[in-house]
Design brief:
By secondary structure, this protein is an alpha+beta fold. The protein has eight helices and six strands, in the order αβαβααβααβαββα. It has a single domain, classed as NADH Oxidase (3-Layer(aba) Sandwich), CATH 3.40.109.10.
Length: about 200
């Protein structure tokens, strides 16, 4: 394996990639959604717990169910995007640990306390959501993550009677330059990091 990915790849995934607000109507095939999940699922989570759950909304009907729960600033771009992803996590992720982490047959007991399960699911589900966005960029798609939505309403609409919970919403597809903000500054290494 090469020690370093090519600059073109790093640009596509990080340096020149942008959060998109405008979207081409070009659909994203189901095969591409499956491919990006197949990439994202390979990235690490603690004890391979894999609590991330992803609902890909691709139909007008599914989008209509989501739209009322988006903030007014996010509703139009959500309806315009080819795919909306509800980035969620499963509070009962530990039920799958005998399968996912077989080297420790009692690993599911580590998460018996609800507060431990919640923290672990949220942290690792967030990681998996970020992996999914990077996988999408790696496959030539654009992303537009958003936290402006009513999580309780989305949970009631899509996850009633389940142990899945919404974390954030991400639009997905081929972005346009429409409503693209100038790139904002980022913190320097000195501002954000320490080496001890």
């Amino acid at each position: 394996m090469p020690e370093r990915l090519p600059d073109q790849t790093l640009d596509q995934v990080f340096r020149t990639a942008r959060t998109r607000n405008g979207w081409s109507p070009t659909p994203v095939p189901e095969a591409k959604l499956r491919e990006l999940y197949e990439l994202a699922k390979m990235a690490p989570t603690s004890a391979n717990c894999s609590p991330g759950r992803f609902i890909f909304l691709t139909t007008a009907e599914a989008k209509r169910r989501l739209a009322p729960h988006m903030s007014s600033a996010n509703r139009a771009k959500t309806l315009a995007a080819p795919v909306n992803v509800i980035m969620a996590y499963d509070l009962n992720f530990a039920d799958r640990l005998p399968e996912l982490f077989p080297q420790s047959p009692t690993a599911n007991t580590w998460f018996a306390k609800p507060e431990v399960a919640q923290e672990t699911a949220f942290r690792n589900g967030s990681l998996q959501a970020a992996y999914l966005m990077l996988a999408a960029r790696s496959l030539g798609l654009d992303v537009g993550p958003m936290s402006g939505f009513d999580a309780a309403a989305v949970n009631a609409e899509f996850f009633a009677g389940t142990t899945w919970r919404a974390n954030f919403i991400c639009n997905l597809g081929h972005g346009t330059e429409e409503n693209l903000f100038p790139r904002n500054p980022r913190l320097t290494f000195e501002d954000a990091c320490q080496i001890l």
